[in-house]
Amino acid sequence: SNVTCLPSYSWASNSKSQNPCIVAAILQTVCNDGVFTVNSLPDGYHYIGPRQNDPSTQNVCICSTPVYELMSACADCQNRTFISWSAWSLYCTNFPGIQEGIYNSSIPRSTAIPQWAFEKPSQN
User: Fold this and answer.
1) Which of 59, 56, 49, 52 is nearest to 95 (CA)?
2) Using CA atoms in the order 99, 46, 76, 19, what is the torsion angle rounded to 10 degrees?
3) Is the pTM of this model over 0.85?
């Protein structure tokens, strides 16, 4: 990730001092052959979840609520907007076993998920 968060978002970093954009990128590498980049957002833009007619964007990583929470924090830490969980997860229907508050893949050793990213978006 090439994103630099505003200094007031130091609370969002994990125990390895990685900002939410870096953590989200690392978590998404698990489902993307080891490669995933989270770029900074231009003014007026937001991150989107899986795309309707693009199965390559629909996977258990991007459809997990921790990735959604981290990507939302990534947008927010750049002073950009983010979309609701219901909008993000609209095309996650191929993964009925996904539960809020759980990352359904193995967490790479190079990162750690901050506790706040396990919050359930439907409740908070």
Assistant:
1) 59
2) 70
3) yes
Q: Which residues of 70-82 are buried (b: 16+ CB within 10 A; e: fewer)?
A: bbbbbbbbbebeb
Q: pLDDT tens across 38-55, in order? A: 999 999 999 999 998 888
pLDDT digits (tens, 9 = 90+) for 51-99: 988 888 899 999 999 999 999 999 999 999 999 999 999 998 887 778 8
Asked if 23 and 114 count as a contact pair (C-beta separation under 8 A), the reply is: yes
Token duo for residue 107: 């967490």
> How is 19-74 classified by DSSP, letter by letter?
-HHHHHHHHHHTTTTT----PPPPTT-------TT-GGG--TTTTSHHHHHHHHHH
**Tokens in use for 5?**
């968060």
